[in-house]
Structures
1.
Amino acid sequence: MIHLHHGSIVVKNRENQGTVFTVELLLGKKHYKNSEVTFCMEDNDKPEIDKEPQPVVNEEQPQLQPTTTASDEPTDDIVENTPSTVLIVEDNKDLVNLLKWQLEDTYDVDVAMDGVEGLKKMNKIHPDIVITDQMMPEMNGMEMMKRIRRDFRISHIPVIILTAKSDENDKTKAIKMGAKAYISKPFSKEYLMAQLEQLLAERQLFRERLWSQT
């Protein structure tokens, strides 16, 4: 629940004093993506227009009819669904351009050129999913994965790792570290899109189940 609200939790153990849990949540809703916000109005919250007192009617005054204007409709909290955001973390510009060309018709795409920039953008835009190369300067994909899983604010975001290697040990290591998929180059657009659709569908199902329990 804390992850869904882009909050953080810190746990401190104090000897002979117990454990302290510190939870931080941002105020308002500006930090949410449109796809993370839903609007629901219960029947007992609807404006009771029909129950408003009617004006006094006599022979000299015609009966006034209640009217409904656009301002009476609850529009501020209604947010339309928007495309999921995919963050590409890749230092090869040719591959970045190829991925953007393949994905931009379906998703909102942002780019970071290495793991350091990738972590900064993740905390800034909170993408729905991350595609990262394994081998990069400054910080490679594996090291970035470690830091993602240690950060409560972004640890819930699924990560797909791209690699030119086909070593089973590297694949096993990446999956154990929390990668949701490990794709060897070259790969087809259809395979990558299928992985994205599956992971995003699983994440949406998790959200719906979580909200239904609150």
2.
Amino acid sequence: MAKRGKVNCWEHFDCKRSRHGKELAGTYCPVSLTSACNGINGGIDAGRICWEIEGTFCTETKCGASDARGGFEFKEKRCSWCEFKSLVRAEEKAAFKETRYPSASNSGRASPFRKR
């Protein structure tokens, strides 16, 4: 469960695709459905490790065209400078998890999973 004061990506970007929100616009984003990531970086589901989830509905317009934002090739290049990821990194400090896989955590390597 998220600790008090820590926000998830859908709260930060005021996203209407979270299953945890009061409103829904379209289908649920996979970030809010990935319970296996619950607790990582203090988030709910994958709410504070969204850069690891393919098929997201990222609303950060600085990132690029909306149809490309959820793909892994795009995420590997752009999420590294996302304002939300920077916020999570700053809040978590040494406890920050770059990836949801412990063996690759904080190593600077690309995520070890992809849809094939």
3.
Amino acid sequence: MNRRYTLLTLVTLIMLVSACAQPPATTKEESPKQITDMSGLYGIWQPIPPAKVWREYRDDGTFRIAGTRDTLEETPFLTGEYWFEGNVLYFKDVSGEPEWECGGELVAQYEVQVLESGEIKFVKVKDECSERAAMLSNAQYKRVGE
């Protein structure tokens, strides 16, 4: 009888302490940092892991894509225009090799997120060009030059 009383008292105390305990603090998940203007995107970007899709964003609102860093200037396989509206990056192809060019009428929309490592990631908002979307969606790049 004494053991039952002690056990019942102990269980009751544990339940009371548990009921009075504070609920765990909830942390508000922070939104990822984003690039929202052209100055944040200027430069040469290498894909991670390395691949044959190097990107250069220029301060005049144009971009170039090439297979290597050395060919960005002279023989890019795609050139185009880019701009920001709010936090959304817009792409418009101007000229390029047929297998890379989506056409100027297919304007893409992406958010550019900055990862903790400093690399960037493109997150598709809207892109009707399936080839470009497959290449860009969630791809990561690191800045390797100005």
